[in-house]
Protein 1
Amino acid sequence: MISPMTKYSFILLNGEQEGLLEKLQEIGLVDITRSVKPVDGPSGDLFRAVEQRKDLVQSLGKIFFPETLQPIPVEGDLTYATAAALDTLEELGERMKALEKEAAAAKPWGAFDPELLKKLSDAGVPVQFHVSSAKSFDPLWVENEPVQVVKEDDGKVWFVVAGPDTLPDRVRGPRRSYEAIQQEIAEVQAEIDHEKAILLTAKKRQAEFEAESRDKLTQLDLYLAKQAAVPAAENTIVTLVGYAPTENEEAVTKAVEETGVFYLKDNAQVDDNPPISFRNNKFVKMFEVLTDMYGRPAYDGFDPTPFIAVFFLLFFAFCMGDAGYGLLLILIGFLLKKVDSFKGFAPLVVTLGIGTTVIGFLFHTFFSIDIAEWSIFRGFPFLPSKIAGYDGTMVLALIIGIVHLCLAMIVKTYNATKVKGFANSLGTWGWTLLIVGGTIVGALALVGVLDKAATKWIIIVLGVLSALGIFLLNDLHRNPLINIGSGLWESYNTVTGLLGDVLSYLRLYALGLAGAMLGKAFNDIGLMILGDGTSIPLWIPFLLVVIVGHTLNIAMCALGAFVHPLRLNFLEFFKNSGYEAAGRTYNPLKKPSPAMPPKAPSRRSRKLPVTTWCSPPSRPPRVSTASSPSS
Amino acid sequence: MVLSALPATQGIYGFVAFFMMRSMENPAVVFGVGLSVGLVCMLSAIRQGQVCANGIVGISQGHNVFTNTLIYAALPEFYAILGLVGALMV
C-alpha cells in the first residue's frame, strides 16, 4: 500500500542549506525534491568522477594477475595512475597480439639476418619466400631452380628462392627474424607486467575506490539537493521542499529541530505530487521491481503490487507449467544468492520456482513427462484433462482471466468511490454490477447453486440497476440525453474491449502448451536415440539431447513466461482497473552504505543541462503547532 | 549474442510442428499445417529479427536497452507460438 507522506517546507538563510541537507542525508528519510540527473558543470564533473571509479573497479575485476606479480608503489593520484595503466595495458595488449602473429609467421623461417637479405636484394638477387603444401612441392625445383628448403613440417614446405622466380605459393617474407621478434615480445611483456603491477596496487586498494565513489555520489546528491533550493527575498533566504513517510515523522522532526532551521510540516496532498513509497510485506516487496517497470501510482491511486504479486506468480507458473522446471528454478534461485550482482533477484526466482512447481504438479507434468500415469501419484487431485468438453488448461486460463478482470473492475470501482465519491462514480458502479455481478450469478447458476427462476430475477434486477448507472446516472451534472449517448458509446467500447481482454488470457494456455510440447519433442528424440536402453554408449547422446533440449526449452519458456504475464498485468489489468502511473519514486537523500554498491544516475544523462523537476506550486502550507519557532 | 540468436527459436517451433505431424496420415493436413506454421514462423522471425537488430544497434551506441529489447522481441514470437499451438490442436 501507499505510505502516507508528510510534507516539510524549510525556510532558511541562503548559505545554511549545507548543514540542513547533511543532517537530512544522515538520517536518510527525507526526499528533497531535486533533479536525479546532473544539471550543470560541477554536477556533471561529480557524475563523471563517480562513473570513472565505477568503470575502474569493473575493469580491475576483469584483469588476470599472475600469482608471482608483486604490487609496486604508485606516486600521485591513484585514480589517474590506474586509468592511465588501463589504457596503456590495452594498447600493449594489441601490440602483443600483433607481435605474436608476426612471431608465428616468422618461426618456420628460423634465424636469418635481414641486413643480408637487403644486401642481396640491392645486388639484384631478391630472396623470395614460398610456402607450399607437401603434395604440390616438386622436388625437381631444388635441382632446376635456386631453391633452398628451410623446413618441412605438418604437410607444408617452407622454401626460399634466390632471385626472381615463377614458382607458386609465394608469401610475404618476415621483416625480421623470430629471435628479434621474441626479444620485442619479452620487452612488451615486461611493460605489461609493470602496468599490471600498478593495477595490482590499485586492486588491493579497491575499497578506497569504492569509498571515493560513494563519497562522490554523496556529494553529487547533496549538490543536486542544494540546487533545488528556491531563492526568495532577493536571494537572502531559500526554501526547500521535502517529503518523508508519516511513520518517520518523529525521527525527521527531531533531526530537523537539531539544526535549528525553520520549517513547516503538513500532510502531503495529491496536488503536491509527493513521492510514492510503498509499505508492503516481504512477499509483495519482491514484486515492486515489476511495478516500477510500469511506474508508480499517483498519491490518490492504489498500489497494484499486491495484485501483481499474486497474479504474476500465478501466470508465470501457468506458462512454465512444469514441476521439474520449477524445481530447477528454485535451485537456480539458491545459486543466484552467491552472485553479488544477482543476489537481489534470488528470492523472486525461488518464489517463482515454488509457484511453478505447485502448478506443474497440478498439470501433472515433470520435465514434459505426464506423471498422472505414475502409480505413486494415483489419486492425486490433478487438473482434469477436459472441462465441459474443452481442454482443462484452456478453460482454467479463461476462468483466471475472467477473475482477474472482475477484480480489476472492483478495484476501479473502489478507487473511483474513494476519490470522487459514490454519487460521481455511479457509471463505474453500473458496469461493475453488470459484469462482476453477472459473472458471479452465471457461475452460481452453472454449478447449480441458483435455480433458473432465481437466476432470471437476479439478472433482471442487476440489468435494471446497471442500466440506470450506465445510461442515466453516469454523470449527474450532465443532460440525461447526453448520458444515454455516452452510455451507448461506452457499451460498444466495453463489449469489444472486454471480449478481447478475456481472450487475451488464452496466451497462458498457448505458452504452457508450447513449452510442454517442445519438451516432449526433445524427450521423444532422446528416446529414439536410446532405443530400448540396453546399449550403454547410447545413453551419452540421449542425455546430451535431453539436457541441451530442456535447457533451451527452459530459457525460451522463461522469457515468454516473464513477458506475457507482465503484459497481461500492465495492459489488461491496469486498463480495466483505471491505473495510471502518474507518481514518482520515493528517493530520500541518503548516503550509500558500504554494503550497497554505489548507483550513479543513468549514463544517458551525460548531456547537460537536463530539466529539473520539482513539485508544482502547492497551496500555502498550514503552520503546524509543532514547528520550530527558532528564527 | 542472445539477441542475434533469438529469432532462431522460430526454427525450433517449426521443427516441433514437423515432429508432431509425423504420425498424421492425411497428407493434405500435413501440407496445410506445414505451410501455415512455416509462413507464420518465418514472418514472425523476420519481424523479431528487426526488433533485435535495432536493439543491437542501440547497445552498440551505449544505450542500456538489452532487457527492453528482450521484452519487445518476445511479442512477435507469440504469434509463432500461436501458430505452433494451432498445429498441435489439429
Protein 2
Amino acid sequence: MTPEQMDKIFAEAANRPVPPTEPPDLVQRVQAAVLKDLRPVRPLPAPWVLTLVFGAVAFLFAGGSALILGLNGLHALGQDQRAAIFTAVALGAWLAALAAVREMRPAGGRRLSSIAFATAAVAFPILFFLLFHGYTSQNLIREGIPCLVAGLCVSIPAAFVTAWVLRAGCVLSWRAAGVAAGTLCGLAGLGMLELHCPNLKAIHVLLWHVTVVLVSAALGFGAGWFADLRGASRPEDLGRFALGD
Amino acid sequence: MAIGSAPEPVPVDALESLMARYQQSDHHAATALIERVSPLLHRYFLFQISNRRYAEDLLQETWMRIHKARHTYRTGEPVLPWIFAIARHTGLDNYRKTRRLESRERQVEVLPEHPAARFAPAEPVTPDMNAILQALPDTQREVVVMLKVLGMTIDEVARATSSSAGSVKQKAHRAYEKLREVLVGAKRK
C-alpha cells in the first residue's frame, strides 16, 4: 500500500460527517453556559515576566535567608569557586523557572521539568566534585543534618510561593510543575547553603547540600501527584455543563 | 448576544482572532469559536474512545476547562494546539478517573437494570478507521488523528502534546508503518 493510498483513507475519514451530537442541542447548551459566565479576562503575563518572577522568588529566599544566617560560606569560597558555583546555580534556576513557566499554560512549549531536574541532579555533583576536596569527615551526619534542614527550611516556604504563582495559570500536569518548582526551590536552598555554610569538604557538600535539591524535587513531585489526583477526582469537573440527566 | 435573540451573521474569522475576542468577552466570538471547534473536539474524542456519549461528556468538560483557562491563551499564538492540549488532558484525567472507579467496582452476578450511560458499551461511530486505529498505541493514535483527521501541522501537534517536532514525526512514522501492515493485511483477507 502506497502512502498516497493511505492518505486517501485518512482524507475519507476526516471528511466523513460526524453524526449530530446527542442530545442535539449539546453545542447550544455549551454556548449558553459559556455566555452566561462570560467576562473579560486579563491574559497571563508573558513567559519572560513569569520566569523573572520565579527567579526573583528563588533569589529572595536564598539571599534573604543567607543574609539573616550569615555569609560565612561566601567568605570561605575562593573567587573561582564563587564564580563557578553561583553561575551554575543561576543557570539551573533559570532552566527550572522556564520549565515551571511552560507548565503554566496549555501548549506552553516542550516539557522541560525532567530536563531541568536531571541537569541539576547531575551537574552539581560533578561541579562540586571538581571544586572541592576532602572525602572523609568524623562528624558527617552531625554536621550535615543542620545543613539539610536549613536548606529545606528555605526551599519549602519558597515552594509555597511558587505554587501560588503557578495557580495563576492553568497547570495541566501538576507532577511536572511540581518537579520544576521543587528543583527551583531546591536550588534556592542550595544557593543559601553555599552562601552560608563554611564547610567546604566535598563529602559534606555532595551529600548534604545537593540532597536539598533532590529532596525538594521529590517533594514537588509528590505534591504534584496529589494535586493531579485531587484534580482528576473533583466532582465539579463533570457536572457544570451536565445535561440535567 | 442575549440567548434566544436572532443570531447575527458572524464573519469567518481566524480561530486566533475569535479566541482573542472571546478573552475580551465578545459573545459572538465565543459562540462562533464553540461552533467551529466543537466538531473537531468531538471527532478527536470519538477517535480516542469510540463512545459517543462519553465523547459528548468530554466535549462539555473540555469547554468548561477552556473557559476557566482562557486567560492563559497568548494572543497571536495558534489556538488549536492550546485547545487540544486541554482536550487531551481532559481525556487523560477522565481515563484515570474511570480506571480508579473500575478498580473499586465489585463483580456482581446480575447487571443493574440501568447502568450509568458513561459505562455503556462502546458504540463505534466510524467503524473502519476506528477499527484500524485501535491497532495503534494511544500516543501514536493521538498523533495520527491530530495530523491526518484534524489536519493539524506537525508543529501544532508538538505544541499540543508538549513534545518536540522530531518526536511527533517519529511517532507518526511508526504509526504509518504499523497502519500499512494492518491495511495490507486487511486487503489480503
